[in-house]
Amino acid sequence: MKRFLMLMLLVLSFSLQTSAQTSTQKIEIFTRLWGFLKYHHINVAAGKSDWDSVFMANIEDIRKTDSKEQFNRQLLSIIEALGPVEKRVAVKPADELFTGNFSDGWTKSSFLNATLKTRLREIYDYRNQGPNRYIKLQNMTADYSGENPYENIGFPDIQHRLLFLARFYNAINYFAPYKYLIGKEWDSMLSRFVPEMIAANDTTSYYKTLLKLAVALNDGHSQVSSSRNHSIIKDNVFGKYTAPFHTAIVDGNVVITKLANDTLCRKANIRVGDIVTAVDKESVSERIKRLKPYVSASNENSRDHYLNWVFFDTPDQNQQLTLKRAGQSHSTNTTCILITEKKWQDIANYMGNETGYKTIGSSIAYVYAAQIWKGNLEQIKTLIKSKQAVIFDVRNYPNNDDFYSIFDMFLPEGRPINYSLVFSPEHPGYFKWELSPKLGDINKNIYQGKVLILADERSQSQGEYSVMTLQTIPGAVTIGRQTAGADGIVTLIPMGGNLTISYSGYGIYYPDRSGTQQSGVKIDIPVKQTLEAVLQNKDLTLDRALEYLSGKGIN
């Protein structure tokens, strides 16, 4: 009897598990089909029906279908309701398009019958070639302004949560240039997040799911944000208070590098150079493991950098720390400060000074790329011309167009900076290559000195593009560490309630079409960060640059 009961429990457990898996798989296929019709069927593109309402009206019935036949009938009825497809000349993508992101394997699923597969093929062959209500190409990236923003939705119910997941999934599937870099995680994206969306039964768990959704893209540009309240996600998930100091993470060690509130740190016996080993009795390694799933990055080097930004965030006004100093450990309690009390420059740890430039030794000009602007441009040019070498520090975020005005003194002829990968509106899932305009002009009197570029994980997006621009200078040498690997304009997918998830909206590649996303820009002389260097406040990248120039007789 005992054996029989155990066997029955095992069968029941397997049955429930199979049922749950089948339900998830049905939602997956419906999500893909809904997105496929949204971007391919001419009548959906024309806005003849509210496509979100179609999702909402069918999702529960899809979940409850109890046979393959009923499931297929439900899907086919959605297609039939759209009316016949006008059969003109079948559309074929041009041969020169980038095909690395295109995938239609789901249309061959064993869940779909032959009739449904034929209809999908027909819709694809005679797909929409005109404007689409839900997507348009604007400034080389996707514009989702045709979507319903659901501004006042509050905490969404299950149907809306699955709708926003479907919206996000299909936007990335068809219009994200770096989808192919996500890897195997993309194939299981829906099977992973459909159950999580269903299970997210309160605001905090929902926000956590959205953060994990963003992180899953392996894209440093992928963040969850709110246009109504910029801190609402962080406050809910991590807390609005933080420790009164700044840190760096090196090889799993968390080192205090700067004090944000001297008074509080002095009171708690906290000093620059202390190594944090535990926070509120949670070891640093455990805390890193717990927080990493919520921190977006394109590579692990930059993830450690961004992890510093939330590592000490807490809902509490006090924090217990265990610190190591000179080999000795001690515990202390500190009063926390509001996150908003920390200076953005200190959080990002960008390099700069008051003027944007300086002189090192007698022969080296040193320029902070983010501080080149029309007010100091001529002074910087004059300084560079008087020196045997110039070091451009791009461990910051240049966002001033005056930056590009410095290149006329370096380039012998016009040179393209990059290729961009831009989605093709007529062929969802395909992308076209666009070469950038040339920078510079014919110049027979260019600067003859050495040009060095410093970059590391602080160089992201426009920072990385600035490095690539400087790398067009003949003979330029780039020194440093792997950069953030997040290049291309930030593009927003509306997720309801003033929330968005962003991603890199177009691809950035070198003129030879080698990539920068995830890998970062090309580094000629790599420099590894060390714990000892951080403790001693050494700039190993600058030291290596000066060593390089010294070897050329420049000091």
How would you portray this structure in words?
A hairpin with a 2-residue loop joins strand 7 and strand 8. The chain has 555 residues and is of the alpha+beta class. Strands 5, 6, 7, 8, 9 and 10 form a 6-stranded antiparallel β-sheet that branches. A 6-stranded mixed β-sheet has the order 12-13-14-19-20-24, sandwiched between helices. Helices cover 34% and strands 19% of the residues. It is built from 17 helices and 24 strands.
Quick structural summary:
The chain is of the alpha+beta class and 555 residues long.
Helical fraction equals 25-40%
How does the helix and strand content classify structurally?
A: alpha+beta
- Low-confidence blocks of residues: 9-21
**How would the global form be characterised?**
globular
Q: What composes the largest sheet?
A: 6 strands, antiparallel
Strand content: 15-25%
Question: How many strand units?
Answer: 24
Radius of gyration: 27 Å
Distance between the terminal alpha carbons, to the nearest Å? 88 Å
Mean pLDDT: 94
Tell me the number of helical segments per DSSP (H or I, 4 or more residues long): 17
